[in-house]
Amino acid sequence: MGKDPKKPRGKMSSYAYFVQTCREEHKKKHPEASVNFAEFSKKCSERWKTMSPKEKGKFEDMAKQDKLRYEAEMKNYIPPKGQKMKRFKDPNAPKRPPSAFFLFCADFRPKVKGEHPGLSIGDTAKKLGEMWNGSSMEDKQPYEKKAAKLKEKYDKDIVAYRTKGKVDSSSAAAAAAADEDEEEDEEEEGDDDEDEEDDDE
């Protein structure tokens, strides 16, 4: 899919502003000279490393201003039909609790790795899935109970988070994004469970 020409220009870092300034200075001093980009970038990088925080401050201020510009423009930007905007995920939103299986994995992963040091991440996960499916209900119960307690706490936290969001409109928008992320996580976990069942068969 082609790039949307109406999409706001991405924000620039302080280092990007510094390189841009170096290019402009070089053009003024040597208007006819061609630039070896790799060599020029290396020189800029070396110069940037030796600069004091005070010298870098000018470029950091420019980057901060550009970030504000970008965020303001993105608020009014409507992506073309068929494109999704990247959702804002609030770092303060309650984190979804792990399932009983994930708690089981946290306990037994070190043991599996110790017994089979050469196993890849995927094979380790498969081995843990087999161990979980082969466990009795009695063995699973402590993990189920712990997961239920964590879920109960999460439910209370998310209600408090959403209630706070009703007062603060920006938090409300973030809570909606958190809800969508939660639904996606549940779908992904459901897919994982189906994969484990397929392995058993």
From TrEMBL:
CDD domains: HMG-box_HMGB_rpt1, HMG-box_HMGB_rpt2. Residues 164-201 are annotated as: Disordered. Pfam families: HMG_box, HMG_box_2. Residues 178-201 have a biased composition (Acidic residues). Keywords: Chromosome, DNA-binding, Nucleus, Repeat. Residues 8-78, 94-162 bind DNA. GO terms for molecular function: DNA binding. Belongs to the HMGB family. PANTHER family: HIGH MOBILITY GROUP BOX 1B, HIGH MOBILITY GROUP PROTEIN DSP1. This is High mobility group box 1b. It comes from Hippocampus comes. The lineage of its organism: Eukaryota, Metazoa, Chordata, Craniata, Vertebrata.
